[in-house]
Amino acid sequence: MVEIRRRRAGGPWTGRPVTGGPVDDEYDLICVGSGIGGCAAAAAAADAGARALVVERAQVVGGVTAVSGGQIWIPGNRWARALGMSDTAEEGARYIDGVAGGNNDPARTRALLGAADGALDLFTGRGLDLRVIRDLPDYYYPEAGHSAAEGRYLEPVPLPAGALGEWAGRLRRTAVWNMGAGTPGGGTADPELVTGQALAGYFVRAALDAGARLTAGTAVTRLRTRDGAVTGVVLADGREIVARSGVVLATGAYDRNPDLVRRFEGVLDDHGTGSPPGITGDHLGMAAPLGASIWSLPAARNTVQVGFPTGELDEDGTARYRTHWVVHPHEIIVNARGARFADESFYPAINAGLHQFDGASQRLPNWPAWLVFDHDLAERGVVQVDPERVVSAPSVEELARRAGIDADGLAATVAGYNEARARGRDDAFGRGERPWSLWMSRLATGTGDGNPTLGPIVRPPFHAARLARVQAGLGSAGLEVDTSARVLTWAGEPIPGLYAVGNATARNDMGFSAQSGTSNLRGMVQGYLAGRDAAR
């Protein structure tokens, strides 16, 4: 058996991690899933002296974390304080209280944010290195009380791939563009990991360095139970592994399960996901027979973006989708009437608009929806004019007829939007005026002045692409957990030996998912809490 380098808790990271040899038949804690939540739980348990195992069904590790933007949203964090920024966890909790629309439990919000410092103490001791993304404000700054102009968003400092040892080649690749300043190493002998890959890499390394074991390409099919308590897992090959202290479900959401998507996210046709294969709601299937409580947000409060299929296939043979953020000029989103219905530069507004329900007609008036743009945007390569997805025409009216959009409505909308562009302000929806949207648009366009999201739709040919709904590895529904990440029954009692973390859990701590970085926050902190509780 290969020896794993260990060190006392709180000391500096001491070396390059190794895999640790074959999987045994018994551990203290088994973590199902190798994203930030599973690896955080394993690292916290192993750091406290427990034997921990991370089981990943895919051949690669890192989960949804590796394909995320890599942000962690932490109010009052130490890196912001070092820059002289004044903020606290309580200020962050009050911000969430104000924007959650009554969907959060304030006690859970404060417990989550209040535990972030303890989690950071552990994981920075295991090598986690973060930095503030400068000038990036909260989504709802400045109109929401207790919002912050900057300091709450953290990103991982680029991590040399070689720091993962033999696991470097088995870290899931990311297609997400960088939100901060880090860039890939570009073919160097030891390239740098950035964004979600870096964040996942830090936590994989933390788990291995703490002494946890990690195995990939191994699926857990069900929980092992005795007298109502979870005592381990059963693998796809029938092998049973005992977990003396419990099992952590860190399996992500259910993007790849059409039945669960329809049940919890509403009936919107033509949808895909940017999450990796394997995100199929396994946590719900495993925990429900034990009486686990499943709690759900309204679907309009979840993070669902719009985009297109790429024409490529994922490793499981399903269509690969990509999101499209409408932060460039020369593009708008319209419904079948040809009308705009939201500030396109702010994706939570688009998602809420898609879920608006008209009681008189008993339909969703803003779905289906189309991206309408002119040839200026097409030439920039922002949207590929694929004839299988995009229709084109020499005039706006003809474009509408070919796309199945009301021609008079679209012509009036485009004319009104162009007039707004000439005035320099979108009076209808305030597009590009939100500081967060403006930051994102300037990053995407490289334009530093004015409102770069506004650009006229005047240059033919004109194009329309019917949009798909693209999920982001998040779900409206999840397992209800307590402040130690223990899964609760419908009666509010913990299921002995069962924990859940991150995207597998209900969002009644945040009350919504439209604040980037909160999912990684939840995975890290809940993993820390679960691992420490199990190791007691």
TrEMBL record:
Pfam families: FAD_binding_2 (PF00890). Residues 28-508 form the FAD-dependent oxidoreductase 2 FAD-binding domain. Its cofactor is FAD. SUPFAM superfamilies: FAD/NAD(P)-binding domain, Succinate dehydrogenase/fumarate reductase flavoprotein, catalytic domain. Keywords: FAD, Flavoprotein, Oxidoreductase. It comes from the Bacteria. Transmembrane segments: none annotated. This is FAD-binding protein. The lineage of its organism: Bacteria, Bacillati, Actinomycetota, Actinomycetes, Pseudonocardiales.
